[in-house]
Amino acid sequence: MKIAVVGAGAMGSLFGGYLSQKNDVYLVDIWAEHVQAINENGLKIEEQDGQIRIFHPKATTDAKTVGVVELAVVFVKSIQTIEAMEENISLIGPDTMVLSLQNGHGNDADIRKFVDKKNIILGTTAHGCTMKEPGFVYHAGVGQNHIGPVSSDRNAAEIVAAVLNECDLITDVSDDVMKLVWNKLFVNVGINAITALIDRTNACIADSPCANAVSKALVYEAVATANAGGANFDAAAVFANVVEVARKTGLNRSSMLQDVSKKRKTEIDKINGAIVKEAEAHGVDVPANRLIVNLIHAKE
């Protein structure tokens, strides 16, 4: 299958590398040094056991050189989705499937401006990784992917899941995509901003009583917000999952921590900020999330 990964940061590179084992893969990114390193030396991925694997996807800064693809995997930051779709529209044909495994809330609505609803798949991944240097990624956490269709048509999601599974990216298909989106948002809400503020890896959520307490406050507010909108999540079970994800990806530096460290704009408005926005619509008080949004913006 001809596949483009839009946004070849750590996660995009990881998926692009694995997918390149059995597909014609193009990593599309504006980071010229990273693109050059991949094209000259291959994409290096260091696994948790220290093994370094080398993959050979193609990489480019110009999507127009790629042409229309069968599958576009979107990994840009959620605050950049519309801009990325506009700049890379040459990849999209009438039958192109688009998979978003991004953080944040509202990515489906952004992608829908460019792609037929039946071709949009949303999902979550429990993988974690960190960029070590141009062309070199550390695979810090291994987990399962869950994807689902935005429409009632499962066909595109089933095709994409088969492609991912064939390349050792274990994936299942869910009919309740919004539950997937909320569960992913809960994990991001409970991990990312905290790690960014205290400059710690994900393990701090499981290991530090203070970080754990803050995470719990953020997640319980997020669950209350989701339930006010008609969902039916159990806050204790949701938080237990957040802690388990943090433990499994304990060595990972969250994307928000990486952004803060490099003085880049974060996705806070699409994560904890999305909770604040949804909470206002449903009359739910979320002081912990409001506070952490302001703290991240102050750090930016």
From TrEMBL:
Keywords: NADP, Oxidoreductase, Pantothenate biosynthesis. Its EC number is 1.1.1.169. GO terms for biological process: pantothenate biosynthetic process. Residues 3-150 form the Ketopantoate reductase N-terminal domain. Signal peptide: none annotated. Pfam families: ApbA (PF02558), ApbA_C (PF08546). GO terms for molecular function: 2-dehydropantoate 2-reductase activity; NADP binding. Transmembrane segments: none annotated. Catalyzes the NADPH-dependent reduction of ketopantoate into pantoic acid. This is 2-dehydropantoate 2-reductase.
